[in-house]
Automatic annotation (TrEMBL), chains A, B:
Coiled-coil zones: none
UniProt protein name: Xanthine dehydrogenase accessory factor
Pfam families listed in its UniProt record: XdhC_C, XdhC_CoxI
Chain intervals for the UniProt region annotation (Disordered): 1-31, 386-408
All residue ranges annotated as the XdhC Rossmann domain in the record: 234-378
Ranges of Basic residues composition bias in the record: 390-401
Domain named XdhC- CoxI: residues: 43-109
Amino acid sequence: MTDDTDVPSPAVATDGGTSPSDEGADGWDATPLGSYRALRASLRTGRPAAVATVTNVQGSAYRRPGAKLVVAGDGNSTGAVTAGCLEDAVADLARAAVDDGKARVERFDLTADAGGEVWGMGLGCNGVIDLLVEPVDESLAPAVDELDAKRTVVVATAVGSDSSEIAVGDRTTLTTDGDRVARDRPGLPDAVLDAIADDVAALRESGASATVTVETDAGTVEVFVDTLTPAPELLVFGRQRDVPPVARLGREAGFRVRVVTGRGGSADADRFPAAHEVLPTRSPDLASLVDAPATTYAVVMSHNFVDDRLALESLLDTPIPYIGLMGPRKRFAEMREAFAEEGSPLGDADLSRVSTPVGLDLGGDHPTQIALSVVSEVLAVHNGRTGGRLAHHGGPVHRRATPPGSHD
Amino acid sequence: MTDDTDVPSPAVATDGGTSPSDEGADGWDATPLGSYRALRASLRTGRPAAVATVTNVQGSAYRRPGAKLVVAGDGNSTGAVTAGCLEDAVADLARAAVDDGKARVERFDLTADAGGEVWGMGLGCNGVIDLLVEPVDESLAPAVDELDAKRTVVVATAVGSDSSEIAVGDRTTLTTDGDRVARDRPGLPDAVLDAIADDVAALRESGASATVTVETDAGTVEVFVDTLTPAPELLVFGRQRDVPPVARLGREAGFRVRVVTGRGGSADADRFPAAHEVLPTRSPDLASLVDAPATTYAVVMSHNFVDDRLALESLLDTPIPYIGLMGPRKRFAEMREAFAEEGSPLGDADLSRVSTPVGLDLGGDHPTQIALSVVSEVLAVHNGRTGGRLAHHGGPVHRRATPPGSHD
């Protein structure tokens, strides 16, 4: 999906800013932004594509349910469903889905007992992976629209059925507002959606995806409940040469990145090619840029004391969960004094959101090392983690999704 | 320093491997690998260049002593000495140094009281920064040779003198073997080198650089003691599609990256463009690749149980400080059982070096997020850190260098 010439350009940013690059990285290591972009491009251009989604895993698997691989008609793919074990098989299924317009479910048993070395091509893939492979069609458009509006959306799709009334691929999109939308394909019966409502709510809340089994009068139906979340936003306030590495790594880590130069006038989009958007908004007006506060993370790094203080003041007026402030502790102590002298001292609720010195404790002082430290912290905070070494922790590597129930 | 056509290519790796790319990133966010490469390129080609080195800082400064900016004759620069405040001034000094062949020292006072807004161009730079700006000449060749041999080296350079016998730029290179080498420029007198020997030892040990003041019979001399350390090595064992992001971020973080595919035969260099070297070495022979064990970090991620176990076994035969093992705890538990069944159970000393699950606890599961977690952990371990949030710690952001003494 590298040829996007027919895709409408992202709207030019207001406030004099520009959008120097389109969203998400291409290729195998694409984040969800990249996969969503590939879906959107296919829907907008009508160019055929297929999408494979992990619906269930057993045993050791590299990707979790909900992981997506979008295969364009020209064979270019965006995203990954394994660590590289099944591309050829998935490419074949994708072609077939585009050709016959039908959704299909395939189980890949990569355990050694099941001949995993055949599927795994000796690469040591293992676990059992269920994939939904389907053409990209209008049934996905409501979900993409919701993501474009920065709202989480749940897509419920039949992935198994012994009911004659429900076929694999039947789909209902469940919006944050509570709407049930079916387009281009049959929707799921209300009885099924009612039966999985609690699971949907739990999965939506945790941002996870899972397959839920429902017993109906007409038979057993397996529904893949796929939670699609808009990409988190990284707002970088600064314009010096330490900003581009933060923007680049932030984008690679899956954030939608906006660089705010704070200078007024027009934005220097060329200086920040990795940013999704470059804006000249001045420090006191930063709050006006926050339109998805629950998942917006800010890094304040203009190196100018007054600009940084005004940026902090503006951002603290919003409910965003994290404001990283570049610079030593002493500088922030001076900033707190300035707030206090103004008669608006920072309270505990403010202080808990200001992270300074910004970043994880990695010990590097080179620009990219500092950027690595900053983006790692933002990612950890977004995922409710504190950094630190996994080997020193006791918990599982992946967040556990709410275990799906079985409804009788 | 982007035109390297005349520079000899890095030697093709033995063992069927190739060197798909030259070392280090270019540009402002270059790590030391990039700066060293720029120095080496100028020395080998004879193309004029200058190098600016931070020798001292007071107050808030973005880079520490030892940070380098190499300016090629065509104006291209590699590295950074500030967050972007002094480029124009440094470019002028670099041109002058190339023209007259002389080293010079310049103090930039970026504090507001000293008119920092003039130097800082309103960008909020501050602190006082001393720079040594000099032509790249043969006086630097012994240090580059030591780095090429993966040895730490100390370069002692006069940066201030009221002695008529010692001029700014006089230089002696101090090798790990204890040699004192002067080339192309007058060396420092033995009396001066003897007087700073303890400082040199401490700075070499901590990997830091600092200016030391020495009182001699002929007057006061300021010596910049610059510790240059070879880039740490990141050895990635694996060949699947999750390897390239680890190689790419590892390189960006300043590591010399070798990808080992473990397949024998020839290496797939094209698949890992960010690696400095791609080798097909098989898992039982990994130890043979470790030639700088104190600063070699391994990540074992072939996804193949047997290959990973053999890789681990081989790497544990070396004294490298860190072996990250991809995969869940349960898999490593099974691996430990396999070691025990073989009659060679892993001891505490082994276990303390095996980091599994690999990476910092960032919570992401996308390929680049996993790579970010892995490379962040390697960087933290290299710097003796644990990767938690700086805001939750009490210490300073930078490692403190051993405070230089004043010798009377």
